[in-house]
């Protein structure tokens, strides 16, 4: 059974020592970074967000983690997609603040990858970012939040979507490829889908009909989710969603093979838990009260724990954007919002031998 350390965000009395950063400091002291990372180059994989989103991990926590690795004798650097450097700067992830440089995961020109073959036949080869898997150690530093495709975005998504080339990301998304439908009767030509598409894959043709360029589409589902009238939908054939989850787990498995046992550590920050991913480009209100920060040696256990701690009973009414008019009444909070069971990726990872969903929560006072 895996041990999951937990630093609670609850502040029971007005005392610095019981606030989340103070507890996080004590949590880090229990992670044996000396034994794990001394003398090693340690990649800290983050999702630095994009555009005007502001709920990524606060730079204070990043600084504390960087300092902990350095004090333990490690050589830390932050990393995310190669073209995320500007996004990192906008959110304060710069050496002067966080104490470490930000390195493009796929190299300066986003061309530095290793091609490996996954065990998932439908996915085949994936390209892993050289500047991540070359490291001696890895800390998967994730912000837990919802995700339109996978239900939940935590450690599995941080690796599977964030440690791969742009074409591989599209390939994994395409596992759930469905068929786009556009209803001209419902469409008000507000162009929200066009401005929100990260790959400029949507336009209106000369006849005023909406066209999606399959080649550019990365199946992020921003358009279907953001359309205020439901004019764009995507048929998701049964089994495709599960295949997408399997693709993420299989990609994680290949990335983790590059590291020695014990050289990967997982920390997930469960604050500002929004319904959508930090790639969305802007932030909506958090759905539940802040929970805290958890840490574990195992990717399956930390994902299970994170999901278990985000409870639909804690949902704060009114925090979802108005267009989510039909929240379901069964399953996890993210399943009720996105219609997808967020535990599926965890089950897939467990079945692929990445760990066990059995864990013991140990609160750090
Ligand atoms: S967001 Fe919906 S209503 Fe607006 S232009 Fe796109 S399809 Fe039409
Ligand atoms: S799914 Fe994403 S990439 Fe594809 S058309 Fe819609 S917004 Fe653009």
Explain how this protein is built.
It is a single chain. This protein has 365 residues and is an alpha/beta fold. The protein folds into two domains: 2-173 and 253-363, Rossmann fold; 179-235, Alpha-Beta Plaits. Helix content is 30%, strand content 21%. The strands form five sheets. An eight-stranded mixed β-sheet has the order 4-3-2-7-14-15-1-16. A two-stranded antiparallel ribbon has the order 5-6. It has a two-stranded antiparallel sheet with strand order 8-9. A hairpin with a 3-residue loop joins strand 8 and strand 9. Helix 11 crosses helix 14 (344-351) and helix 12 (299-309) runs antiparallel to helix 14 (344-351). The longest helix has 17 residues, at 240-256. It is globular and about 65 Å long. The model has no long low-confidence stretch (mean pLDDT 93). Bound molecules: iron/sulfur cluster (SF4) (2 copies). One iron/sulfur cluster (SF4) binds at residues 197-199, 201-202, 212, 217-223.
Structural features:
365 residues; 2 domains; Rossmann fold; Alpha-Beta Plaits; 8-stranded mixed sheet; two-stranded antiparallel ribbon; alpha/beta; binds iron/sulfur cluster
What is this structure, in a nutshell?
The protein has 365 residues and is an alpha/beta fold.
Low-confidence stretches: none
Morphology: globular
Identify every distinct bound molecule in the structure, by name, code or SMILES.
iron/sulfur cluster
The largest pleated sheet is described as:
8 strands, mixed
Helix-strand makeup class: alpha/beta
CATH architecture of the largest domain: 3-Layer(aba) Sandwich
Give the tally of β-strands.
16
The CATH top-level class label of the largest domain: Alpha Beta
The number of helices is 14
């Amino acid at each position: 059974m895996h041990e999951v350390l937990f630093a609670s965000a609850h502040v029971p009395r007005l005392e610095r020592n019981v606030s989340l950063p103070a507890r996080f400091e004590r949590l880090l002291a229990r992670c044996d970074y000396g034994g794990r990372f001394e003398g090693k180059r340690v990649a800290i994989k983050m999702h630095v967000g994009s555009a005007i989103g502001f709920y990524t991990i606060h730079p204070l926590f990043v600084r504390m983690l960087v300092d902990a690795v350095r004090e333990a004798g490690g050589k830390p650097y932050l990393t995310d997609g190669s073209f995320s450097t500007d996004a990192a700067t906008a959110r304060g992830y710069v050496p002067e603040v966080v104490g470490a440089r930000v390195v493009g995961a796929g190299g300066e020109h986003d061309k530095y990858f290793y091609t490996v073959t996954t065990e998932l036949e439908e996915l085949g080869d994936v390209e892993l970012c050289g500047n991540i898997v070359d490291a001696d150690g890895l800390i998967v530093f994730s912000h837990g939040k919802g995700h339109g495709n996978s239900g939940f975005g935590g450690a599995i998504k941080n690796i599977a979507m964030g440690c791969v080339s742009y074409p591989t990301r599209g390939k994994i998304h395409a596992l759930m490829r469905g068929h786009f439908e556009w209803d001209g009767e419902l469409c008000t030509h507000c162009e929200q889908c066009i401005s929100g598409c990260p790959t400029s894959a949507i336009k209106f043709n000369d006849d005023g009909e909406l066209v999606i360029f399959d080649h550019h589409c990365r199946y992020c589902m921003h358009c279907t989710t953001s359309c205020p009238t439901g004019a764009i939908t995507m048929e998701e054939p049964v089994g495709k969603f599960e295949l997408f989850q399997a693709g993420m787990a299989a990609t994680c498995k290949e990335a983790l093979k590059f590291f020695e046992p014990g050289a990967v550590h997982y920390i997930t920050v469960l604050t500002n838990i929004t319904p959508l991913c930090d790639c969305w480009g802007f932030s909506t209100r958090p759905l539940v009260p802040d929970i805290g920060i958890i840490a574990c040696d195992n990717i399956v256990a930390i994902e299970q724990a994170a999901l278990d701690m985000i409870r639909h009973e804690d949902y704060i009414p009114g925090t979802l954007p108005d267009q989510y008019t039909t929240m379901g009444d069964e399953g996890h909070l993210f399943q009720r919002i996105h219609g997808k069971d967020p535990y599926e990726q965890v089950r897939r990872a467990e079945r692929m031998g990445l760990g066990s969903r059995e864990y013991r929560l140990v609160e750090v006072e």
